[in-house]
């Protein structure tokens, strides 16, 4: 079947891509607001838990094919929530990652769900939801490029970037 002179699958693909730009571009425009200024606030080293020392919020990891927060990672998220709660100006970007293909819609979807899981947990600990943005990297930013099971496990994660709203 054709639509507008092109096969229906091509028509759907081209319109889906066009619609995706209406979603992606506004989100990309908001990223600098959540990232904050060019320099990032650094908490005093002795004032924060080890999970957030050196202005680096530790990532959390997921089992293959899941979006559930593991008990050990809940402690990391608890430390993140406490650190974020000390200053109401802090903003957080959570990026979900997978060990799948960068071009896979499934991988991007799993990345979004992993970021949402982390956000939901932080909100349950008192972090305002409007202080957290989520994004999916899918398999596009691997921490490890090898194809071993250990390496793939390090790619199934959620990472955290902080900023300060002026």
SSE arrangement:
Blueprint: E1 2-3, E2 6-7, H1 8-35, E3 60-61, H2 71-85, E4 90-97, H3 105-124, E5 132-138, H4 149-155, E6 157-164
Parallel strand pairs: 4-5
Antiparallel strand pairs: 1-2, 3-6, 4-6
Helix pairs in contact: 2-3
Q: Could you characterize the architecture of this molecule?
A:
The structure is a single chain. With 166 residues, the protein is an alpha+beta fold. It has one domain: OmpA-like domain (60s Ribosomal Protein L30, Chain: A), CATH 3.30.1330. Helix content is 42%, strand content 17%. The protein contains four helices and six strands. The chain has helices at 8-35, 71-85, 105-124, 149-155, and strands spanning 2-3, 6-7, 60-61, 90-97, 132-138, 157-164. It has a four-stranded mixed sheet. Strands 1-2 form a two-stranded antiparallel ribbon. Strand 4 (90-97), helix 3 (105-124) and strand 5 form a beta-alpha-beta unit. Helix 2 (71-85) crosses helix 3 (105-124). The longest helix is centred in the first third of the chain and has 28 residues, at 8-35. The N and C termini lie far apart (54 Å). Mean pLDDT is 75; it is low at 27-54.
Notable traits:
alpha+beta; four-stranded mixed sheet; 166 residues; 60s Ribosomal Protein L30, Chain: A; two-stranded antiparallel sheet
What would a concise description of this structure say?
The chain is of the alpha+beta class.
| Helix-strand makeup class | alpha+beta
Using the coordinates above, name the CATH class.
Answer: Alpha Beta
- How are helices and strands ordered from N to C? EEHEHEHEHE
Major sheet summary line: 4 strands, mixed
Which consecutive residue ranges, at least 5 long each, have pLDDT under 50? 27-54
**Gap from first CA to last CA:** 54 Å
- Number of H/I helices: 4
Determine the fraction of residues in helical runs and give it as a percent range: 40-55%
